[in-house]
Amino acid sequence: MIHQRGQFFLLLFVGGALSQRENERCYDEKSNFVGRCRRQNDCPSAGSYFASTGIRPSYCEYSVRRVLVCCREGNSFRPSSTTTQRPVTEERPIWGLGLSNGNKRISERKCEEYSKAVINQVDFISLLPEPETMSITDVNCNYTGVELIVGGENAQQGEFPHMAAIGWPGLGGGVAFSCGGSLISNKFVLSAGHCNKRPRFGEPTVVRLGEQNMNPSVRDGANPIDVQIKKIHKHPDYKPPNRYNDITLFELAEEVKFNDNVRPACLWNKPGFGGHKKALATGWGVTNPDTMETSDELQKVSLFLLSNDYCSTLLDTNRYWDGFIPSQMCAGELRGGKDTCQGDSGSPLQVVSEENQCIFYVVGITSFGGKCAKSGQPAVYTRVSSYLDWIESVVWPGQ
């Protein structure tokens, strides 16, 4: 039931109610719980709840052939009574310290550099007899600052300048882009461990930066660049097909020159997520899961940050994944319709800096999940803050 998110870009958002099968997980928006689709006669709680409250159950299927209702299964699947999503509240450790230079990590200091690069400073003189030169600052980027999108839509040109596409040699020439990533310095892209290699295609060879639309015939003002991969830095504890420590670093063959459409993201370094209840996922993807029709245009979608304990009641384990560990995190939309999916592997789950709306912090790396965009099926992400020591040792050694 749980699949790895590879093969081609897919950012999934589904509209409309779809018929669900018996025993699938479901979300009852009226009564605010996650349950399973059962035949009406096999769900006595639905009848008793209707008798006591007058609220009819949500239907998974209503047809001449059969009626399936969303059936409550005790309290284990019920979200908080005050919200349909349960934000992360538990603290997750950051491995090691890696502190220097005034108790700031090297990744923090680099983030300050990135932030300064998108700030404009304007000097002015006040109308006084002996004026002093003063200055004001403002951010300069293409991010609109609009509340996180609630369905999935086109990103703006240059809105996510750290977004990377990971490519393999394609059949008959060309490049096939099958994973995503985040530019975090002028020579490194952060991605998922299972993007290190594809069956029959081997290791990726190129990273594309500054892309907006994957269709080469589209003239959208983007000037993407392709940079060869010099070396793949595999995490020492990533042991596929097990789905833990799913993180990798692609070292580029040459340094990247930053501009408005190519600029690195920062690394989230806090154990929790502060006041953030949602995060943005980005990728090039399928807009119709039935036809697998893809979108050439970069997409963005907002997802709730959920607690690992809560998500563990929703996701099934298997021989490659035995449940959450602290270096993993969970995000999704419990009602369904919004998700990351196959091919979004390695792409960032990110939040906007509270101090500078031009700066994104990568909090998670898309790893794997259950059935894409189904109710009660959030996805699992690699928690970036748990790997800062390793990332810094590779990207900025000795600093």
Give the class from helix and strand content and strand pairing: mainly beta
Outline the low-pLDDT stretches. Answer: 7-18, 75-98, 120-124, 134-139, 144-151
Number of helices: 4
Largest sheet: 6 strands, antiparallel, barrel
Straight-line distance between termini = 43 Å
Number of strands: 25
Oligomer: single chain
Q: Overall pLDDT, averaged?
A: 78
Helix content: under 10%
Order of helices and strands: EEEEHEEEEHEEEEEEEEEEEEHEEEEEH
What Rg do the Cα atoms give? Answer: 23 Å
Shape: globular
Strand-residue fraction?
25-35%
What is the topology?
Layout: E1 3-4, E2 11-13, E3 25-28, E4 33-39, H1 44-53, E5 59-62, E6 67-71, E7 99-100, E8 104-105, H2 106-116, E9 119-125, E10 133-139, E11 153-154, E12 163-169, E13 175-183, E14 188-191, E15 206-209, E16 225-234, E17 248-252, E18 266-267, E19 278-288, E20 293-306, H3 308-311, E21 328-332, E22 338-340, E23 348-352, E24 360-369, E25 379-383, H4 388-395
Parallel strand pairs: 18-24
Antiparallel strand pairs: 1-24, 2-22, 3-4, 4-6, 5-6, 7-8, 9-10, 11-20, 12-13, 12-15, 13-14, 14-17, 15-16, 16-17, 19-20, 19-23, 20-21, 21-25, 23-24, 24-25
Explain this structure to me?
The structure is a single chain. This protein has helices spanning 44-53, 106-116, 308-311, 388-395; strands spanning 3-4, 11-13, 25-28, 33-39, 59-62, 67-71, 99-100, 104-105, 119-125, 133-139, 153-154, 163-169, 175-183, 188-191, 206-209, 225-234, 248-252, 266-267, 278-288, 293-306, 328-332, 338-340, 348-352, 360-369, 379-383. It has 399 residues and is mainly β. The longest helix is centred in the first third of the chain and has 11 residues, at 106-116.
